Structure formats: structure tokens, C-alpha cells
Amino acid sequence: MSPTIVQNASAAHQESFPISIGEQLVQSGCVSAGQLARALEVQTKEKGVSDQKEALIGKTLIELGYISHPALLNCLFHQLTRERVAYHLDPQAETIIRFENVEKTLDGRKVLDQLNMAIPANKITAIIGISGGGKSVTLKHMVGLMKPDQGEVWVGGQPLGKLSVRALNGVRRRFSMLFQEGALFDSLNVMDNVAFPLRETTALPEAEILERVEGCLQEVNLGGMGHKYPDELSGGMRKRAALARALVTRPEILLLDEPTAGLDPIIENAIHYLMCDTFMRTRYTIVCISHAVPAIFDWCHHVVVLHRGRVLASGPSVEIRNSTDPTIKQFISGDLDGPIHVI
Ligand SMILES: Nc1ncnc2c1ncn2[C@@H]1O[C@H](COP(=O)(O)OP(=O)(O)OP(=O)(O)O)[C@@H](O)[C@H]1O
Ligand SMILES: [Mg+2]
User: Fold this and answer.
1) Cα distance between the two ends of the chain
2) Atom 1 (ligand 1): residue with closest C-alpha?
3) pLDDT for residue 51
4) Considering Cα of 21, then 23, then 26, then 31, what sign does the dihedral take?
């Protein structure tokens, strides 16, 4: 029997989040109603923007000098904090992805072991757990890049294992994935890397593709960097370029595999802000594998702790952070003494 899963996360989004980002900024006192009205007017009249108000409103408010970029990001973070606490008090959300008794053996080792997991729609979920615990393998199952030996993965009410190739491709188009390694093509410059999924999967005119690519590069603060090649970028810039490539298709579900691994604390923070900014503008369902513990608890609504191929705990971020489970406590503290033996 099909579990209760929301079919269309966008519809859920409209019901749950009726107010726009601009209205949120006004409500939280970051800008005045007059400033918002002026920014919307500028967007519509001077920039000819009609359907992308959400994506550009922050930018326009900055250009008009009504708010600085760091102040805007801070407002978005505080909004996310409010949502995180509200979700803790009343953790209601539709499920968009569900794992049902999923088993996967790789090279003779059971990597996923009767894995049952639910990912809430239009929320940020962090998947945490020790290295080798099956986090990346789990993410690959969500997009059908790996198939379970047993059990089923459901996306929006559809069982991936029972879908035709065509239907599965349709489900895949709802996703974008930032791979753990970034996976940029070394032989392509940043512009062509980001344009790649649009050129492969759409018939958009080249001019529109280039416009969308530049827009995404600006969103990740890589505006004007399109001519650079991956080996000319720092680690943080490569991650941001990979994020731009994940965003360019405007996915409904964004999967991020360790977007902050190997980055300094400031760039890590910047990537977290970027994730928050993206979420606030788009309300995509975001699933983020992260080792940035405990920082990641501040940047997500929901946490899943994966351990030995199973879900050890899942729930609102605040609840998991305060867990008294010895394994979770040890993982958060990084203590060598405890139920997890690594050496
Ligand atoms: N394609 C594959 N073939 C064989 N074994 C694999 C494959 N992919 C992953 N594994 C194994 O599955 C286990 C889980 O790997 P996974 O990459 O999911 O770990 P992880 O939790 O993402 O770890 P990390 O935090 O280090 O990225 C590991 O033992 C790994 O060696
Ligand atoms: Mg991994």
C-alpha cells in the first residue's frame, strides 16, 4: 500500500507558505513596507521582471541600498531559526521521499539494512552520521542512481522500483544533486559546466540558457566568473559553482552531499547562508548530508542520524541536538569514548 506522500511539493509549499520572502522581510522588520513596494515596482517596471520576484527581491533591495547583503542573510537566518523552533514545537510536514525497508549490499557488505526513513517536503533535512555509514549511498537511492536489493524508495507517492524508464526519468527531473566530489567537468569552464544540465535536458534557446546561468552564478556570488576553469577556482568556489549547476534546473528537491567538506569555517558559514538563502527564496525540499556538527543543527528543520545503514534517530533538529542517546551524543561531541569504536 502506498504510504501517505505528498504528490506535488510545490502545491504543499503554496499551502504552507503563503507569504513571500519580501513579506517575510517586512514582518521581521528588515525592510519597511514602503521599501518593499518600491523594490517590487523597480523589478516590474525597470527590470521587466514578472514571475521571478521571489528570486530577485533581496538583490533589488540591496541594489536600492535598503539593506546590506550580510544583513539580508542574517534576516533569512533568523527567519529559518523561527521556523526551526516552530517545527520542533509542531513537527508537521508532508513526506516527499520515503524509504521502506530498503536493503543494499555492496561488495558483500550490507550498507543499508532495513532502512526506513521519511524526508519532509519543503523543509531542510540534514543527514548526519559517521563516515561509511551509508549516507551517500542513501542519497543515490533517492534519485534512482542506485537501486535497493529489497524494499522500496517512494518519491512523491511513486515507487521508483516499479516505474518505467520514462517515468523514472520524469521523477529524476524533479531532483538536482550536488555530488560529494563536486563533479565539475575539468575541461569545461564554469559557464559551460552550469549550462550543461540545461543543454542536455531542455530545448531552451542559448540566449536564455546563458541568462539563467549568469543569474545562478550571481546567486552563488560567482557573477562574472563563468570564463574560469575548475582548476582555477578555490575549493569553496568549486562548491559554489557545483551548487549553481544544481540550482540552474530549478529543481523541486535539492540533494547536497557534504557541501561544506574541506572548507574553512568562514566559507562553511557562507555555504550555509547560501543554502538558507536558496531555501527561503525557493522553498525547495533540501536534503543535506553534513559532517558540520553541531553547526548544521542551526541550518535545518529536520535531522536524520544514519548509523550502520539504519536510522538511529530522526526528528526536528532541536530534538536531535538535545538527544540523550549515547551514540548520538558521542557523534555530536566527537568523543572517542562511547558506543562507537573507530580505533
Ligand atoms: N559503488 C560502490 N561499490 C562498492 N561499495 C560502495 C560503493 N559505494 C559505497 N560503497 C560502500 O558503502 C559504504 C557506505 O558508503 P557511503 O559513501 O554511503 O558512506 P558515507 O556515509 O557517505 O561516508 P562519508 O561520510 O565518508 O562520505 C562504504 O563502506 C563504501 O565503501
Ligand atoms: Mg559520503
Assistant:
1) 43
2) 106
3) 54
4) positive
In three-state secondary structure terms, 308 is coil
pLDDT level of residue 1 (50, 70, 90 thresholds): very low
Which residue's CA is the nearest one to ligand 1's atom 17?
A: 136
Arithmetic mean of pLDDT over the chain: 87
Q: Which of 99, 127, 136 to mutate to test the pocket of ligand 1 (most atoms within 8 A of CB)?
A: 136
**Cell (9 digits) for 298:** 542551526
Nearest CA to ligand 1 atom 30: 132
Residue 179 pLDDT: 85
Which three cell numbers, joined as nine digits, stand for 137? 549511498
Burial of 42 (0-12, 13-18, 19+ CB in 10 A): middle
In this prediction, residue 19 carries a pLDDT of: 63
CA 312 to chain centre: 22
Query: Following DSSP, what letter does each residue of 24-76 receive, concatenated?
Result: HHHHTTSS-HHHHHHHHHIIIIIS--SS-HHHHHHHHHHHTTSS-HHHHHHHH
One-letter amino acid identity for 286? I
pLDDT of residue 159: 96
pLDDT at residue 17, rounded to an integer: 46
Q: How far is the centre of ligand 1, averaged over its atoms, from the C-alpha of 133 (Å)? A: 7
